[in-house]
Amino acid sequence: MRGKVFSASALAASVAAAALLLGAQGAQAGGGCYGSACYTLQQSPPVYGTINETYVARPAQTQSRIIPAEYEYVTEQVMVHPQRVIPRYRPAQYSTVAEQVLISPAGRRWEVSRDLYGNVTGCWVDVPARFGIQQRTVEISPASTDYETLPAVYGQRQRKVMVRQTQVVHETIPALYETRQRQVLMSPGSQYWARGRY
Description:
This protein is mostly beta strands. The protein has one helix at 8-30; strands at residues 39-44, 47-58, 61-67, 70-81, 84-90, 93-104, 107-114, 120-127, 130-141, 144-150, 153-164, 167-173, 176-187, 190-195. The chain contains one helix and 14 strands; from the N terminus they run αββββββββββββββ.
């Protein structure tokens, strides 16, 4: 944008120039002005220049970004069954044996009989011992308890674990600066009297 900008000194110079101009016009009206004794009113235009100025096109900003948690699956060994001790009961072992037993002991008995002639006779008769076979059950081995140890049983399983927690990351976006050109008044225009050439 172009325009005239006057300072206080330029305004004072303009007022003085206007007074001289009126005096000159009065002098010309009275008898005229010729040659080097005359002054003419000169005017110089204002001078403008272009400067570069930097301004904030966008201020700095802080943004928050959420990074979700990360999970992974890990394989670990776990106990399926603990160690166990199992009792094993063994019953007693029996067998049947046959053995000779005394049924009746040896002895003597009095026997009465008749002889060939019909006479009654008596005598002592030796009676041998009587034996028989008897079966009985005997214990071969007594009852016992054995203990069997079964080792623990292990297996593998996968488990989901967190390897990184949820994070909030703050990111700062720096301000954005831009440069623009602006027209400024370098020197104001002025008026002055210059001696005439003719």
